[in-house]
Amino acid sequence: MPPTNMNPNHQPHAREMRPTANGDHHHGHGLTAPPPQRHQAYYPRSSSSSASFKGCCCCLFLLFSFLALLVLAVVLIIVLAVKPKKPQFDLQQVGVQYMGISTSNPSSFDGTAAAVTTTPTTASLSLTIRMLFTAVNPNKVGIKYGESRFTVMYRGIPLGKASVPGFYQEAHSTRNVEATIAVDRANLMQADAADLIRDASLNDRVELRVLGDVGAKIRVLDFDSPGVQVSVDCAIVISPRKQSLTYKQCGFDGLSV
Fold first, then answer.
1. Is 19 within 8 Å of 27 (Cβ atoms)?
2. Phi then psi dihedrals of residue 73, to 5 deg
3. Which uninterrupted H or E stretch holds 100?
4. Which one of 49, 80, 145, 155 has the largest count of C-beta atoms within 10 Å of its C-beta?
5. In a 3-state reduction of DSSP, which class is residue 166?
6. Is the full-model pTM beyond 0.85?
7. How far apart are CA 40 and CA 47, in angstroms?
């Protein structure tokens, strides 16, 4: 039988008693309690993505604002350098090719017949005139004209229309533009028919009005400016017997021929 250690000073290994924060004791073999596990805080990504989106929007807004200001500055510089002026579009000549008036009565007035004594109930007017316009461009750059339309009227009643195709005009130039209006038996009712017959037979003068709007744009470096309107408003008087123009007035300038 093996001898036993009878040393009175020898004591078995005792478990350490360590107090905890709440006063309790735990047994351990020299090992400390594991540290409490820390949980990392979670922040949602929506706030950061929203901030970056707002930043991009601000940058795009500033970029577009800068580009708009740059374009505006360039346009102002061009306008100040060019100093655009309104083009001129005037009616220079009117050639009467044919004018005939017929009434509801058996007799008709064609410019050579005698005056109609009875009051007609209706009358029709046939007319063919050729108009020569002069377009003047006083600017340093070219002008682009759109399609122009003209209307011939008798006492506020439209009789016929004519159109002129669009064209381009060089700087500091003058160009002639022709338009022909053909009226084929435009009917007039009793009151207007009586006025037409009286003007043609008694006075030998039929006063017509030519109205039109001409659209034009100034072209600079292949860019067109906002459109401007050039209005044409002319009064013309035609002699049915002579089949010719006797008076023309456009705007404030009158011209008798």
1. no
2. -65, -40
3. strand 88-103
4. 145
5. coil
6. no
7. 18
